[in-house]
Amino acid sequence: MTDTQPLVRAGSTSHGAVELSVTPELAGWQHSGLVVVRLGAGDTYEHHLEHDEAMVVSLSGAARVSVDEEDFDLVGRRDVFSGPSDVVYAGRGSTVSLASAEGGRFAIATARCERRLPAAYLPASRVPVELRGAGQASRQVHNFGVPGVLDADRMIACEVITPGGNWSSYPPHKHDEERDGAETQLEEIYYFEVADGPAGPGMAYQRVYGHERSTTDVLAEVRTGDVVLIPDGWHGPSMAVPGYDLYFLNVMAGPGQVRAWLICDDPAHAWVRDTWTHQPIDPRLPLHEQERTS
């Protein structure tokens, strides 16, 4: 459906403090974007949104986030496996400034939009933590940027923790067309981080495949900082290999008039959901900082 190049490798779009920059123009689509910034102690960064709205999330560390003249303290977290982060929302056309006293890494998820909404702050304590699936399909979802939790014009965003050996985004599903009450058309960014092991960085895998209206075809090893762009097609599973916990940030936006995240499972694999009623959720979940450091 598009000319999107599905893989953006870590470092391939970096410049200065920016580790990753995915714009709609780079992706070859219309709406979704993502910037990841690394700040040293005392550093600052400024981002002009122009036609976008944004959600700012800590990947590690704390920052003062200014949206035009309004200031918010982003408490942040140690790393992406340490429970949810608090979130700052910035409306269309805002200037977003980050200042970090001790340094850190921060994600600025963006979406092209029409309406300008007021800036907002969501504390980590109000981020819904969902345990989804069961057995080896167990995962932990932080629903910080979904409808009903944080208001936005177009953007939908969440993050997923998958314990080593488990599969997320499973059964494979899609959201690439508007079907009233059944499916919404959303461009999706998957940004990955993988926990280190005793011998070094970990790895994971992502699958995306097409259908009669999609030629997207990805089976990729991913590591920290890598991105998979999904304009269309069935996506899943996201595979956390044994020994390495997997994190991914999802950023979605699309052309529909209703901000909704409606998906359709691949009929060939939808039956898997029925098996979860007879399986317990992985006892390693929920995964939070105290569990990783005990």
How would you sum up this structure in a few lines?
This protein has helices at residues 24-27, 272-275, 289-293; strands spanning 7-8, 18-22, 32-39, 44-48, 52-67, 70-77, 87-90, 95-99, 104-112, 120-122, 129-132, 139-145, 156-162, 167-168, 173-174, 187-194, 204-211, 214-222, 227-230, 234-240, 246-253, 264-265. The chain is mainly beta.
How would you characterize the overall build of this protein?
The chain is mainly beta and 294 residues long. It contains 3 helices and 22 strands. It has helices at 24-27, 272-275, 289-293; strands at 7-8, 18-22, 32-39, 44-48, 52-67, 70-77, 87-90, 95-99, 104-112, 120-122, 129-132, 139-145, 156-162, 167-168, 173-174, 187-194, 204-211, 214-222, 227-230, 234-240, 246-253, 264-265. A hairpin with a 2-residue loop joins β5 (52-67) and β6. The radius of gyration is 18 Å and the shape is globular.
